[in-house]
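Q: What structure does this chain adopt?
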Amino acid sequence: MIAADDLIALVRNYNPKTNEDLIRAAYDFGRQMHEGQFRRSGEAYFTHPVAVAAILTEQRLDDATLITALLHDTIEDTKASFAEVERRFGREIAELVDGVTKLTNLQLSSTETQQAENFRKLFMAMSKDLRVILVKLADRLHNMRTIKAMKVEKQVKKARETMDIYAPLAGRMGMQWMREELEDLAFKVLNPEGRASIMRRFITLQKETGDVIPRITGDMRTELAKAGIEAQVFGRAKKPYSIWRKMQEKDMGFSRLSDIYGFRIITGSEMACYQALGAIHQRWRAVPGRFKDYISQPKSNGYRSIHTTVSGRDGKRVEVQIRTQAMHDVAETGVAAHWSYRDGVRSENPFAVDPARWISGLTEQFTSEEDHEDFLEAVKLEMYTDKVFCFTPKGEVVKLPKGATPIDFAYAIHTRIGSACVGAKVDSMRVPLWTRLKNGQSIEIITAEGQTPQATWLDIATTGKAKTAIRRALREVDRERFSKLGRELARVAFENVGKKATDKALDTAAKRLRLSDRDELLARLGSAELTGRAVVQAIYPDLAPSPNDEIDRNRAVIGLSPDQSFDRAPCCQPLPGERIVGITFRGRGVVVHSIDCEALSAYDEQPDRWLDLHWHGGSHPAIHTATLDLTIGNDAGVLGRICTLIGEQKANISNLEFVDRKPDFFRLHMDVDLRDAEHLHSVVTALEAESDVAAVSRVRDPMRLTAQRN
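A:
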């Protein structure tokens, strides 16, 4: 364990004016509180808080953050209280320790709803004081470094949480070194064989070519010296996980991967950065499309650097980053640079961003998104993306994630501009809205009065802000339609238990379900975000129908008038549980299609024939036929075993037709009577697991409807 004197010495290296007495008092108090507690490895528990504090000294953080690290588990795991910490160390530190404690109790990898709620709490904690997250990240880093002492299942859970949440968060905050180490430590747990394979290939490469890093570093220093540029040059091999990810993204083997080495040039001034770039490009050939200038267009977390990739010795590609020392400090500590100290005073780094402004920009688009799935999507979109920089016609810079489209650009300017967008020009050329934007392009958004967001925009947009705004607008547009359908769904659900869906009953249900009002309840019911059974259960928990109660075939579909009958479309054979739409036919009632049925395109110009329909909730009888396309081995007894297997899944075979016969296999179409889409999934899964089944798929043929019409 690091002694108190040694920890204080680490702080003095960058902050000679540190409050040594307060740090020593926190060290002694933390050790006393954790007395008798041990880690799974057998070490005294207090070794962990001390190690976390030591990690934070590498980022040259202030005394309050370091003391928080020493005490971060005292309120949760010892008899120490918030009041006692506040009395001894002040309000600021007590609140920081309490904030870390609350973060520790968040189960960020829990169910989707709970995870979304906990993410909201995470961002709220960050917005109060970002140092809470800095301590939590250092805490997670030390836990990952010592993860081998945990049980295997807990190792996997922690590693997955680290890979999905903490590593991207560290990267987004600009702490790239921490992101890379967290990813690699998690990779070691989640895919030890893959990591070991990368390491073996590295060793083999070094044996074949020798250690190329000193050679290339020497070459670069020579070229810079020739140009009269004073600079430091450092080289390193990429982390195993970084290499693995590139192999997966580019779908290529290690031997074909070229840029596995990275070099960093630290200069004395911004002008020297560009001079160094010129010297490097004069000596080595630049790789097209691999140049980024984050000095003139910095990232939102303050990161500044020039990135280029060149063909080095033996034609191998190497990545080069060029920056000043001040830029390097921000690149190493990211948003944390705001609290960094140098020579006993808060570092006056001109590139450090204001944490409050940074976090408000990050959370702005999340706070208004109510839907948990949409919220999580928005968070992950923003956390995992690289940036491109585009210009407005007036020359203002707009930062967007890689892969962004004009829709994202429009919403980044203003929600009103995004909603009214009808087209875009890129560098004065009219382009489709799905065009992927590139660095340096000038974008002009064309708007029109009366335009509203289209549902297809959700597939075009990539930013969380754009997707959130589009969904909100679509909900408002569809609200009346969904409310009307929801009213019908509520009527049927209440009639099933002998009750009426009065306004008062719906108001009560909305209150019990914590919805704003009756209209919100009906809209959610109509958009399938809520079930009729859940609404009934909110008021009459004892009367709510059991999900096992079988639904009568004649009332299986909701949304029809009393005099309308229905048939399932033979082209798509919709099953209960799938989203459906009805097409009316004079004299024949309504034909029900799956929402994604190709045959529906024939009715695009006849909107008056379309009906919004829903399958009734609950258990349906196994009378809904779906056709399966099976390819099976041509051996004795195979067909019998397949039929037995389907029977074991409580499904009936109502028809069987051989499509193709070959010496080695048969291909056949089999009609199977099913309850719902889940029942189909069970049958298909069982068939896919059978060794004699070479292929199985669902038959959906638009020509069947044509044949039926004729």
